[in-house]
Write a structure and sequence with these properties.
It is built from 9 helices and 15 strands. The chain is an alpha/beta fold. The protein has a single domain, classed as Metallo-dependent phosphatases (Purple Acid Phosphatase, chain A, domain 2, 4-Layer Sandwich). The strands form 3 sheets. A 7-stranded mixed beta sheet has the order 1-7-8-9-10-14-13. Helix 7 links the parallel strand 5 and strand 6.
Length: 338
């Protein structure tokens, strides 16, 4: 296995000052990893969008930045008698199994299994993080992929999240590929890589098994920071290769299908997190059709999966929308042959 196709599409932005000694060192390491232009532009975007509830254009709400929202949700759930149940639900992870049937899958990749984690928010709730670690420890898989959101907030100190991610890494086997989400600072990248996470920052990775290859591309956050660069991510992927895109959100599904991806994995929506009976989400916080907001879906020739995520956002509660870790199995057909 090897990392291939490192390219960046960010140029010439004003310098950004780091806020403390730790961040100065992180910025130095980040500039070595991504180049000064990319690193400083991403940090400038983070600063500009920090703690905004309404986007500067006035088109999109970012509910996770509403300071009073957790208290309002907690009060509503307490008044309805659902708070304790909803909190317990957030810690009861399930292992979901999904099959991607690809008739043209190279025979050497038959049965390849990928573990997907997403929306961990590891500094949100200690009990949930413990549940994640206990859930993933006995699982068997060829590769783990994580589709973003490691921090509780979209701004502030990254140290609590980094501590949680270090603890989680001790329970994950083999190679772990990861991307950033809208809660994540680019300053996390060097530290996560030092822990053993291989970050895909608009880059691709070739997974080899039995002499065959699965190409996995990962893009930076398309939702809040809009720093995804699909062109850079696919630059080194052969046209006929079997390919998978990791994106924090389902929002670039059309572009991914046009780029020729076979598979698409994402998270961000939490499946709604608080849903009506039957799993009907109150909100998905994503610019995409609602049927792409949870579970398996298809668009043109591309198959996708949007996980409900392992953690929670805003408040550690869930209703009618269990948290999950997902095992994806690739196969050529119903019987694993073709």
């Amino acid at each position: 296995m090897q990392l291939q196709g490192v390219r960046y599409g960010m140029h010439g932005q004003p310098p950004v000052s780091a806020s403390n000694v730790d961040d100065v060192e992180r910025l130095y390491q980040l500039e070595l990893r991504l180049g000064a232009d990319h690193a400083r532009r991403r940090l400038a975007i983070e600063k500009e969008k920090e703690a905004r509830v309404l986007s500067r254009e006035g088109k999109h709400l970012h509910l996770e930045n509403a300071y009073s929202l957790p208290s309002m949700i907690r009060l509503c759930l307490q008044m309805s008698g659902l708070y304790r149940r909803a909190q317990a639900n957030s810690r009861e992870l399930r292992v979901t199994e999904n099959r991607f049937i690809l008739p043209e899958l190279p025979r050497g990749l038959e049965g390849l299994t990928l573990l997907q984690l997403s929306d961990l928010h590891v500094d949100m709730d200690e009990a949930n993080l413990h549940a994640v670690m206990e859930t993933v420890r006995p699982l068997e898989y060829d590769l783990c992929v994580i589709t973003g959101d490691y921090r509780r907030d979209t701004w502030g100190d990254i140290n609590p999240a980094m501590d949680g991610m270090q603890r989680l890494r001790n329970h994950l086997n083999g190679t772990v590929l990861a991307i950033l989400g809208n809660h994540d600072s680019v300053l996390m990248v060097p530290e996560l890589e030092a822990m053993g996470y291989q970050m895909l920052m608009n880059e691709s990775y070739r997974l080899e098994k039995n002499g065959e290859s699965l190409w996995i591309a990962g893009v930076d956050d398309p939702h809040l920071y809009q720093t995804d660069d699909l062109e850079a991510a696919i630059a080194d992927i052969p046209a006929a290769a079997t390919s998978l895109l990791l994106s924090h959100t389902p929002e670039i599904y059309q572009e991914a299908a046009m780029a020729g991806f076979d598979l698409y994995m994402c998270g961000h929506t939490h499946g709604g997190q608080l849903c009506l009976p039957g799993g009907l989400p109150l909100t998905l916080d994503a610019r995409c059709p609602r049927h792409l907001g949870r579970g398996a879906w298809e668009y043109d020739a591309m198959q996708g999966y949007t996980t409900t995520g392992a953690g929670t956002s805003i408040l550690n509660v869930r209703l009618n929308c269990p948290p999950e870790v997902t095992l994806h199995r690739l196969t050529r057909g119903p019987n694993g042959v073709g």
